[in-house]
Amino acid sequence: MTGLIDVHSHHYPDAYMEACRRPDSGFTHYYRDDGRLIVLQDGAVGLAVPQPLPPLEHRIGMMDEAGVDVQVLSVSAPNVFRLPEPLRIPLTRDLNDELSDLAGGARGRLRVFASLPLPAVDAALEELDRALALPQVAGIVVCSNIDRINLDDERFSPVWEELSRRGTTVFCHPTVACCTDGLREYAMSLAMGFMADTMFAVGRLAYAGTFDRFPGIRWIFTHLGGTIPFVLPRYDNYFRQFPECREKIDRPPSEIMRELYYDTVTMHAPALRCAVDTLGPERLVFGSDYPHVPGGIDRFVAVLNSVGLPEEELAMIGRRTAAGLIGLEEHQTVEGG
Q1: Which residue(s) pair with 154 in the sheet?
Q2: Over residues 221-225, mean pLDDT
Q3: Distance of alpha carbon 58 from its chain centroid, rounded?
Q4: Which of 65, 135, 144, 305 has a CA positioned 20 to 30 A from the CA of residue 214?
Q5: Domain total for the chain?
Q6: Exposed (0-12), middle (13-18) or buried (19+): which is 197, by Cβ within 10 Å?
């Protein structure tokens, strides 16, 4: 399959790496024996970045080999949210500018999900307005919690309201959970906690009525939504059983969750098959998590192709839905394509 749009890929400007290593960053770090920079939040692994990062030419080459037409870049967890505010606000502007410039020099092959300097809401609104006007910016990236503040927290409502008004695509990446007890050892935060935190975030946003209050936002959640395809009936079970789950919504959470989007980052074909059957192919978009997963982009294409989907569904997942979410015409090709 060719012409894919990869909504889940990352890049880390040097200024971001330097900020994560600062003594006052709120993080600790070390270098793994393979050279990767490991960033810890509250003692739990939150980021593992290849060092040095592969150059742009390597990324484009990997995209070509895998049949990927366009990738959307973002800064993954832990993003900027833990950094001290005097550093966080100007750094966020610089990161967005650098990613926009990088994408602008890639002959149409790259787009960007811009970061916001949350939890500073006023500064986030200012940067939102500025960043969404930058060339190649296709939406906003947030994490499944903002420095241990849940996304449904009322203080973020002005941000969701503005993003909804603009009809913005919001890419939500997992991060270190609010409670790291039991997740510090064995890289459990990165391996398993990320999946759970996505599941928690989606559940809270649904029960809190955030999705319904701000319907203009087009949410993308990563890694098949964590464990959502496997536990979806439980959200509805507790909606029926507990009055507090019905205080802010008047319809089953599963109905709400089937209006969201989820990327296909998994190396387990049965899990992807479950997501297709549970959420519908029209709610899935292709992702690779490049450059984090050893083995490149094509292994995620192989998993997608192995599920035995009809060509129409493959085209929907591989390109058509994502094209609408990032403002790219479905049949638009890269420069020179």
Answers
A1: none
A2: 97
A3: 22
A4: 135
A5: 1
A6: buried
Spatial contact of 219 and 170, defined as CB atoms under 8 Å apart: yes
- The reply to whether 108 falls in a domain is yes
pLDDT at 337 > cutoff 90: no
Tell me, what CATH number does 96's domain have?
3.20.20.140
Beta strands 149-150 and 145-146 are antiparallel
93: in domain: yes
Instruction: Sort 2 into a burial class: Cβ within 10 Å, 0-12 / 13-18 / 19+.
Output: exposed
Residue 334 domain-assigned (yes or no): no
**C-alpha atoms less than 13 angstroms from C-alpha of 77 in its C-beta half-sphere:** 28
Residue carrying the six token digits 């971001």: 16
In the numeric block, which tokens belong to residue 128?
């939102």
DSSP 8-state secondary structure symbol assigned to residue 53 = P
Phi/psi at 174 (nearest 5 deg)?
A: -70, 160
Range of the domain at 271: 4-16+55-325
What share of the chain has pLDDT > 70, as a percent? 97
Query: Per the domain annotation, does 271 fall within a domain?
Result: yes
- Residue 295 — pLDDT band, cuts 50, 70, 90? low
Which helix H or strand E contains 44, and what residues bound it? strand 44-49
